[in-house]
Amino acid sequence: MQHIDMNETVISIRDLYKSFGEKHVLEGINLDLHKGENVAVLGRSGTGKSVLIKIIIGLLKPDAGTVKVLGEEVSQLDDVALRALRLKVGFSFQSSALYDSMTVGENLAFPLKRNNREFTPEQIRKTIDIVLDAIGLPETINQLPAELSGGQKKRIGIGRTLILRPEIMLYDEPTAGLDPITSMELNRLINAVKERFNTSSIIITHDLTCAKSVGDKIAVMDDGKFISQGTFDEVFTGNEELIKSFYDYNFIQ
Amino acid sequence: MSSTNDKPDKPIITAKIDGFFLLFYDFSLFVLRFFREAFRPPIEVEEFIHQCYQVGYKSLALVTVTGFITGVVFTEQSRPTLSEFGVTAWLPSLVAIAIVRALAPLIAALICAGKVGSSIGAELASMKVTEQIDAMEVSAINPFRYLVVTRVTATTICLPLLMFYNALVGCMGSYLDVHAHEQTSLISFFDSAFTQVTFLDFSTALIKSVAYGFTIGMVSCYQGFNASQGTMGVGKAANISVVVSMFLIFIEEVIIVHVMNAIR
Asked: Which ranges carry the ABC transporter domain (chain A) (predicted)?
């Protein structure tokens, strides 16, 4: 099992605020992600979880606060530096966001070719095979995204981010819209990615089972704030009403 | 008049004028970004060739049909008036002047605005709302260079080619009509047709079609790249791409014709 290095922080977020017009989405977020650690950010829909990771990757700009990724302040980076940083951070979209005019192989080759122009076709093919093998879908290489199931699309989306060998993975609702068995397979894949590719991850989810399966630490978010952080046992022994309701709901499910 | 949160609302007309200038400013930044990105390596050659195929080759059939019909119809419509004055011999040169100076650039541009503009607008908008453009961003790929620069360059280069092709097919249509009525040979038709067409006419047509191609590419890419509101936004982007492109093409036509006539 991968060792968590508590002395090395790969993502550090301090006093993060973000609003869209009158709506305050993030209100003073603080979070540390250590090397080798998986942090699951758990919360209901619309609490600002996805906004948080979009700020981490630089797709959105914060109103206030700092986000340091691998020691670099994201909002201060210019385009070139931001692209260099993004090579080290993988982002798996809730919708998978596969390029629908390309086959699975082309989807995987696309970022690889553009970021490693010296790669030969053989090297590209070999890298694609390794990644497809890691996500367990080698037979889909010539298929179009429209021919894949929801779970397969999520796996290919994860594969496309892994092809650049990131140090950090950001997963946006990896199990949303999937049946319990496929969700379980996705959770296993997230843990396998951590072990095989030595990644540190933030997993955004509203699925308690997912958070428990993949998170070394869980941060519960409500109304743009973290109301509890810690291991699963630490968080779910508290008496916070929202946390209890989360647990009860998922237990009933 | 005040809104529910007690902030004074702007009169509708002022808000619309503000909106227009904001849109104009945003579009200008988009155009400037194109020039900034277009000349920086790496150049996306493969995607550029693919777009030239989409814009140029895939529009050939439509351009052929419309060009041919334009040539035939214009000749048919002009003949009675010319024959009244007994100058049907002027028909080839009249048709050639009309086609090269006005019809070919406009028809090729309007066809492209409808076919290519809507396609680019819808494609990019669909990529935007399904987060495919964001996926490029997070994979350290510059989506502007890959999607916008290649498409705008393709429309700017392909439209002049389509325009000259359209002019040629139009003249061929006119020739077949003239040949059917006056038994003129191909050589004498083209000889007569192009005696009145000057280098400036060809240059004007070229300038027009470059401007139209650039406009179609920029407007469609801008609409697609800034689409929102899910699937409704895709339809809206395709629709606005066509309407605004056509509108701007007519405005450019007026400006270029006036400038060229002043030079002439």
From this structure: 11-248
